[in-house]
Amino acid sequence: MGYRDDFYIAENIAGYTGKIRDNPTVYFATESEHGRITQDHDNKTNIGREWLKSTEGYSMANENYEGKYRLVEREGGKVKHFSRHDFVNMEGMSQDNKALLYQAIWKWTELKKKYQK
């Protein structure tokens, strides 16, 4: 059993960052929680499932940040994370591309090593 298998499901995928065919980071959200699965990163301890966080006070949007157009996530108005890439919404995506995102769910079941003791 993986970390929060009840949350990290296909129905909760909001979209992704990165290249769809090259291990994108997959973002998940419900009305009350959000998280992501990072599939590739220079820091190997940052690969896997993210701790879930509350959506209260949370926002995410593509914007020009530090000279690059990318996804910026804020909590209470403060930048908490900025992506290496812009965010691509799940809406209108082909079934083939959705299937590529679904793979992250079963490929990465564990919490990121940076959170494990």
Mean pLDDT: 96
**Strand fraction:** 35-45%
Which regions are unreliable across 5 or more consecutive residues at pLDDT < 50? none
Q: How far from one another are the termini?
A: 18 Å
Largest sheet report: 6 strands, antiparallel
Shape: globular
Cα gyration radius (Å): 14 Å
Order of helices and strands: EEEEEEEEEH
Structural class computed from helices and strand pairing: mainly beta
DSSP strand count: 9
**How many discrete structural domains?**
1
Q: Give the fraction of residues assigned to helices.
A: 10-25%
Q: Please count the helical segments.
A: 1
Please give a structural write-up.
By secondary structure, the chain is mainly β. It has one domain. The protein is 11% helix and 38% strand. The strands form 2 sheets. Strands 1, 2, 3, 4, 5 and 9 form a 6-stranded antiparallel β-sheet that branches. A 3-stranded antiparallel β-sheet has the order 6-7-8, with no helix packed on it.
